[in-house]
Structures are given as structure tokens and as C-alpha cells.
Design a protein that fits this description.
Layout: E1 2-5, E2 12-15, H1 22-32, E3 49-51, E4 68-70
Antiparallel strand pairs: 1-2, 3-4
């Protein structure tokens, strides 16, 4: 199995060389087993850049998030 870490996103790309990809699925499942994804809808469609601040209680967590988002245009 060939995989490559993508530095811009922290994601990985997989390039299986054969149709038996069960081991690839098992590896992906192991990697994301303890990860969570939070999402929200912007409160306003104003086309403006809005900053984000994420706070997590405790120091056992690593938070990787965007510093800002661009709301959709009105």
C-alpha cells in the first residue's frame, strides 16, 4: 500500500495497487477511531471573513482547526 501525508490538510491519500483494499480500510479506521469532527452553520450569509476561537477544557486534547472562515455571500 502506498500512502502519502498531505501537509496542507494533514490528510492522507491512498493509492492501492490491487483491488483488495480491506487492509487500507482497517488502517483508516484505526487512524480516525479517536477523532471527532465538529461543524456549524454560519449565523449570517454576509460574505465576510469571521475568526474562530476554539477552547477545550483539559490538556489531553490536540485541536486542529481553521483560524477563520469565509461566510457565503448573501
Amino acid at each position: 500500500m502506498a500512502n502519502r501525508t498531505l501537509p496542507a490538510t494533514g490528510g492522507r491519500a491512498y493509492f492501492p495497487k490491487h483491488p483488495r483494499v480491506r487492509q487500507h480500510y482497517a488502517e483508516i479506521a484505526q487512524l480516525i477511531r479517536h477523532e471527532y469532527s465538529l461543524a456549524f452553520a454560519p449565523p449570517a450569509a454576509d460574505g465576510q471573513l469571521h475568526s474562530l476561537k476554539i477552547k477545550v477544557k483539559g490538556s489531553a486534547y490536540q485541536v486542529d482547526h481553521r483560524q477563520a472562515y469565509l461566510a457565503p455571500p448573501p
